[in-house]
Design brief:
By secondary structure, this protein is mainly beta. It has a domain at 58-170: TM1070-like (Hypothetical Protein Tm1070, Chain: A), CATH 2.60.290. It has strands at 39-43, 50-54, 60-70, 72-74, 77-87, 93-100, 106-115, 120-124, 134-156, 163-167, 169-170. A hairpin with a 2-residue loop joins strand 4 (72-74) and strand 5.
């Protein structure tokens, strides 16, 4: 898809209104000759809360996600996390996620497998069976440049904000 914007202009794209986009999770790469600012909004259902994150981060072979959770309980709420990784490189790459506890101790390594260029893969942290319940950080590594987004969702005892997303930190 190609489009042009004049200086200081704004344009919104909705997955459901762009005819050639499939339903389901997508990843995107924006190429531009001028600086742009991008925000990504996700709504799971018209009556559900949405989540937003800035769309830009520089691709690198190591991305840190400082907050991810598996059945993490705080204030009567239970939180679970997830992540999505996109291969921004030119070749397929094997992506590994290393999880650390709050004391910085390595807990477990998890492979997302091979991701083709321009494609992405996701992981719901509770699906990592060897990872103990609690709050963790994750370091995502690959041989090709990647970008990553972390997320959290309140699954019980929820009141107020119940979900969020954030860009990973490039290292």
């Amino acid at each position: 898809m190609s489009d042009s914007l004049t200086a200081q202009a704004m344009k919104a794209f909705c997955q459901s209104s762009v005819g050639d986009l499939p339903n389901g999770p997508l990843s995107a790469k924006i190429t531009t000759t001028q600086p742009v600012v991008v925000a990504v909004n996700q709504v799971h259902d018209p009556t559900d809360q949405g989540v937003s994150y800035s769309g830009f981060q520089f691709a690198t072979t190591t991305v840190v996600l400082p907050w991810t959770a598996k059945a993490y309980q705080k204030g009567g709420r239970t939180w679970n996390g997830g992540l999505r990784v996109q291969n921004a490189g030119t070749s397929s790459t094997n992506v590994t996620v290393d999880f650390y506890n709050q004391n910085g101790e390595h807990q477990v390594s998890y492979s997302l497998g091979w991701i083709d260029p321009g494609r992405s893969a996701g992981l719901y942290v509770p699906d990592v069976s060897d990872l103990p319940n609690g709050l963790h950080s994750a370091v995502v590594t690959a041989d090709q440049p990647i970008v990553a987004v972390g997320s959290g969702v309140c699954s019980s005892g929820c009141d107020g904000d119940t979900q969020f997303s954030y860009n990973g930190i490039n290292r």
